[in-house]
Specification:
mainly alpha; 78% helix; globular
Length: 445
């Protein structure tokens, strides 16, 4: 009865696409390529693949198992399975969703704005210096970024407000194929450029002489964060998942899709920067400054730029939907608030919280905390460097040492078949993952 009242995914495919959409976000398409560039290309890719399929997969399956076992949001799940101080882990997940979405929506708004700027020709003909001025002027403006922040947040609320089957699942079945189509179109366009093969070689030819301790930390950190772990999204999605779905297969499929999209994004960006002699480790500016300058040198550059920023917007929206669902599920489950009202209230609160983040690049740029951090920086640092790692560690420990009998029952499936790697999974959850994430937490602090 509880599952019927809350709703659920109508099909395994719907869940896979929605969960993959949650994991696939700006981190895959914007952050992964330049992190790879900063850490030696192929060598980083090898280390990343190992960590994402050992640590990332293990924690993802734990979150899905906790959610499905309790059929509740993060707060309700920890309350139902154990209670006591562990409920605080659930509240941390809800809070993390609010904080991340508040500034994530701001950046999501930028992607919509830049898609429109590209198709209207406002980015045409500019070199990196001119486009740097365009970007600085845009994010430094008071009103325009807030308008796009509101548009992005409204789109997110519309999808979540409709519900799981009619909203999130239906949107995922449209947006995820669209995302993959746009990626393929861009790869074909970029690989036709003279000199693009050097980027492919850099990406897929490991040079382990460039590997150091920071490379491992970066790989573990990004593998963990790229899968939307530690923020309650996979736990919440797991709560809507049918018991006929075998969790190891579901978690593995989502992990593979997330990693595939990151690799395909690298095949767009790294060949492009090599073709035009750009530093592959140029950092975050690659997205809104360097890449538009590259697109301007390509045939049909306006359309390529438009497709790229639509791709970013779609990826951002699928992740934002999952973040908002964590918050909405809490109010629906625990406070019995109607979904539409919960979505509207949460959307307004998160939009308002995002205003100082948007103004951090203009009106509030001189308002700093802890020395030089803007409000945007504080929100990013608090979530990425503290809340997510701590949440991930606690989820792993809870699954391995507190609720293991119930967790392994969920992982074994509705036919009670035995999960063949149960012992190894428990070691990774209870020992390997906490140690690895503690290293990331220490490094971040």
């Amino acid at each position: 009865m509880a599952r019927q009242l809350r709703g659920g995914f109508a099909s395994r495919l719907g869940f896979i696409l929605a969960a993959a959409g949650s994991a696939i976000g700006l981190g895959n398409i914007w952050k992964f390529p330049y992190i790879t560039g900063e850490n030696g290309g192929g060598a980083f890719l090898v280390i990343y693949l190992v960590t994402v399929f050992v640590i990332g997969f293990s924690i993802m399956m734990a979150e899905l198992a906790i959610g499905r076992a309790a059929e509740r949001n993060p707060v309700g799940a920890f309350s139902r399975l154990k209670g006591g101080a562990w409920v605080g882990v659930g509240y941390m997940g809800v809070l993390t969703g609010v904080i991340i979405l508040s500034f994530y929506s701001v950046v999501g708004g930028w992607t919509i704005a830049y898609a429109l700027k590209a198709i209207s020709g406002q980015l045409a003909g500019g070199d990196a210096a001119a486009l740097g001025g365009t970007f600085g002027g845009f994010i430094g403006d008071t009103a325009e970024p807030l308008v796009y922040h509101a548009i992005f947040m409204t789109l997110t609320c519309v999808v979540v407000g409709v519900g799981i089957g009619g909203g999130i699942e239906r949107a995922a079945k449209v947006l995820m194929p669209l995302l993959l189509f746009l990626i393929v179109v861009l790869i074909v366009q970029v690989l036709s450029l003279p000199g693009a093969e050097a980027g492919i070689s850099f990406f897929f030819s490991p040079d382990f002489s460039k590997v150091n301790g920071d490379t491992f930390i970066a790989a573990v950190g990004h593998a963990f964060f790229s899968l939307s772990l530690g923020m309650g999204t996979m736990l919440t999605y797991g709560s809507y998942l049918s018991r006929k779905v075998w969790l190891p297969t579901a978690a593995a499929t989502v992990t593979v899709l997330d990693t595939l999209i990151a690799i395909l994004a690298g095949m767009i960006i790294l060949p492009a920067v090599f073709a035009f002699g750009i530093d592959p480790g140029a950092g975050p500016g690659l997205t809104f400054i360097t890449l538009p300058a590259i697109f301007n040198q390509m045939p049909g550059g306006d359309w390529v730029a438009f497709a790229f920023f639509i791709l970013l917007a779609v990826a951002a929206l699928t992740s934002a939907v999952s973040l908002l669902e964590v918050v909405v599920a809490y109010f629906v489950d625990e406070k019995q608030v109607l979904r539409t009202r919960a979505t509207m209230a949460a959307g307004v609160i998160i939009f308002l919280l995002g205003i100082p983040s948007s103004l951090s690049f203009g009106l509030l740029s001189d308002t700093t905390f802890f020395g030089t951090m803007t409000f945007f920086d504080v929100m990013d640092y608090l979530s990425s460097n503290i809340l997510l790692p701590v949440g991930g560690i606690l989820v792993a420990i809870f699954a391995a040492w507190i609720a293991w009998p119930r967790i392994i029952e969920e992982a074994s499936g509705w036919e009670k078949s035995t999960f063949p790697l149960a012992g190894l999974w428990r070691i990774v959850l209870g020992v390997v993952a906490p140690v690895a994430v503690l290293l990331v937490l220490y490094h971040g602090l």
